[in-house]
Amino acid sequence: MSVHETQSLLPVFGSRGPHVFGPLQREIERVFADFGRGLGRNGFDAPSLDFAETADGVELKLDVPGYKEGDISVTLDGDVLTIAGKTASQTEEKDKTYHLIERRSGAFTRSVVLPVALDAEQVRASLGDGVLTITAPKAQALAGRTIAIETKPAAAA
After folding, report:
1. What values do phi and psi take at 27, rounded to 5?
2. CATH class of the domain at 43-137
3. pLDDT 10s per residue in the chain (157 long)?
4. How far apart are alpha carbons 72 and 109 in whole angstroms?
5. Burial of 125 (0-12, 13-18, 19+ CB in 10 A)
6. 45, 89, 102, 103: least CB-packed within 10 angstroms?
7. Is the distance from CB of 66 to CB of 130 less than 8 angstroms?
8. At a CB cut-off of 8 Å and minimum separation 6, what does 91 contact?
9. In terms of C-beta distances under 8 Å and separation of at least 24 residues, what long-range contacts does 81-86 make, across chains too?
10. What are the Cα distances from residue 30, in Å, to 14, 40, 103?
């Protein structure tokens, strides 16, 4: 071996021959390959959300197929609207051997900071065809008013 040649003691990953770290490498590759499987488009297990502001209010739509009315809650706390849902696993049949399960089960929470004040008493939510629609009108701007100054009689000296 010449002075400029070196021999690595570590195996070359990606080579065709078996090496001591082969099983570990395959396990790491499997973990990374499975990491995103079953996750939502946003990178986490939460429904997709469309959020629009209109001249009169806001409208949010979430894809929640398989969820029922009792599975979802909507809360408004100040300027934060939070949608939470929970559904049980739908694969509880004992006489089947499942090879792949991708249907959603478990819980999710989505919170949206609203860019406008809403009339909290007028927030409405409806569920149909697997889509949760939330609408709310903007809060009326507080009208200013002029405060009259009262004149008090002068105190006797």
Report:
1. -65, -40
2. mainly beta
3. 444 555 545 555 555 556 677 778 777 777 766 555 444 444 446 788 999 999 899 999 999 988 899 999 999 998 899 999 988 766 667 788 877 777 767 788 999 999 888 888 999 999 999 999 999 999 876 556 677 777 678 776 6
4. 10
5. middle
6. 102
7. yes
8. 98, 101, 103, 105
9. 81/111, 81/112, 81/114, 81/118, 81/123, 81/134, 82/109, 82/110, 82/111, 82/112, 83/109, 83/110, 83/111, 83/132, 83/134, 84/108, 84/109, 84/110, 85/47, 85/109
10. 15, 19, 21
Q: How far is CA 51 from CA 4, 40, 132, in A?
A: 62, 17, 12
- Domain range summary for the chain, segments of one domain joined by +: 9-38, 43-137
What CA–CA distance (Å, rounded) separates 157 from 147? 29
pLDDT of residue 43: 43
Q: Which amino acid is at 102?
A: E
Please, what is the average pLDDT of the chain?
77
- The answer to whether 36 touches 44, Cβ cutoff 8 Å, is no
Q: Within the chain, what is the greatest distance between any pair of CA atoms? A: 115
The amino acid at residue 109 is T
Please give the model's pTM, rounded to 2 decimal places. 0.59
